[in-house]
Every structure is written in C-alpha cells, then in structure tokens.
Design goal:
This protein has 239 residues and is of the alpha+beta class. 15% of the residues lie in helices and 36% in strands.
C-alpha cells in the first residue's frame, strides 16, 4: 500500500514538474493609434525555426501563445496585412510573459521580401486559409502530417479530420473531389511537399446559390491548393 502511494506521489510530482515547464505569452496587438487589431498573426518560432506556438488576435486585439518550453529561446513574429511586421526575440523563457505590440504603417519601408510575405492564417467570411510552409519544416511526408501542425486542425490515426471540433466531410484538390472526397485517402496519399495552402470551407454547400438555404452550417470541407510545380504532376490524375 505504501509502495503504491509512493509511486502515485512520484507520478504526480513528475506531472506537476512537466506542467510547470510549460509557459504562455499573452498580450495585445494595436495599431499606432492604439486601436486593437483583430486577426493579427502572432507566431513563436523556436531557434531551429520550428513552430513553437501560434495565435490570432480577437476583436479586442488579445492573443495567447501556449505550451512554450522553459529555458527555450523564441522569435516572436507579429504580422497584419498593410502594417510593418514585428519581430522580437525572447531568450530563455523562465515563466509566463505579457508582451504588447504596437504595429506601424510600413508601406514606404516594405522591401521585396515583405511584399511577398504570406500571412500564415487568413480568414475571409466562412473560409480559413493556412499557408502550409509557415507551419512545416520539410520533414512531413503526407497531407496528414501537414494538417496535424495547423492550429485548430486534428487528424486521428485513421485519417479522419476535424476542424474546430467539426468533422471534415470531404477533401478537394484544386476545387475537385479527391477520390470522391475521401479524407482518409487524402491524408495518407497526397504528398506533403505538394501542398501550398489548405483552405477550410465552413458552412459548405456545393451549389453556391443554395448556400444558407439548407442545413449546411455544420458542413466542413478542406480544399488543397497545390504548389505551382505540382499542378501538372501525377497528383492531378488521382482526383
């Protein structure tokens, strides 16, 4: 009995230590006039350039980056279309932090790199668009590996996809059903290096003129946009 209690105490201690080693960074993002910016992207990159955490500001301009590791160094990047990107380093994180950002107009200062910068996540109406390269590091094999790294997206061992807790009904490639939209086949067969963007279409109705007239509010579909050099590959024939 004493042995079991001891083991339980050790297990609880290990859990508490593991939890204690994960921290968060919170704060607000505003423009130069102090107006909160909604839908700004806030990303924490690790030193190896892997994604550490990702957040999107709410209507009050607030963001949250969770699951950050103790003693790790992160580069925080804040971006919002039309404003100058902010990049700031946090060295050897030792606890929860509050960091507020003020974004300035940067139209006159944008160079070629900034002009081609892709927002990691953008939202327009019922469509969420993820820029795949912003969340991957080249070690991914299939589409399922890419999807697992996108915030709000989950893929189980069978290849079923959920977004924001909603089951994805089917998968398309360039707007056409992939093997009749079978999400399991898509996650296990579409090469990761072919994926440019992942579009999540919420409230989906394949006849746009009927959108909103039926029970389509819980229908989620994923559309894969291919990279330029992959659009005429053998993947096109699999659709």
């Amino acid at each position: 009995m004493k042995k079991n209690i001891l083991l339980l105490c050790v297990a609880l201690l290990c859990i508490s230590i593991a939890v204690a080693q994960n921290y968060k960074i919170t704060g607000t993002v505003v423009d130069s006039l102090g107006v909160p910016l909604q839908m700004a992207n806030v990303i924490a990159y690790q030193q190896d350039k892997n994604l550490g955490a990702f957040g999107i500001t709410n209507q009050e301009g607030k963001y949250k980056l969770e699951g950050l590791k103790q003693d790790s160094t992160y580069t925080i990047k804040v971006s919002f279309l039309g404003l100058k990107q902010i990049e700031e380093k946090v060295k050897k994180l030792q606890g929860d932090l509050v960091k507020n950002f003020v974004m300035m107009a940067g139209a006159d200062e944008l160079d070629a790199i900034n002009l081609t910068y892709q927002m990691p996540v953008s939202i327009k109406g019922d469509t969420i668009v993820y820029d795949a390269d912003s969340f991957t590091n080249g070690t991914e094999d299939k589409l399922g590996d890419v999807l697992k790294k996108l915030p709000g997206v989950e893929v189980n061992d069978d290849g079923d996809i959920t977004v924001e807790g909603q089951v994805v009904e089917k998968v398309q490639v360039e707007g056409k059903d992939f093997f009749e939209g079978d999400s399991r086949l898509a996650t296990k067969n579409i090469p990761a290096d072919a994926v440019s963007k992942v579009q999540v279409l919420k409230n989906y109705n394949n006849q746009s003129q009927l959108k909103g007239l039926g029970n389509d509010q819980d229908r989620y579909v994923i559309n894969i946009k291919l990279k330029e050099g992959k659009r005429n590959s053998g993947l096109e024939k699999l659709r």
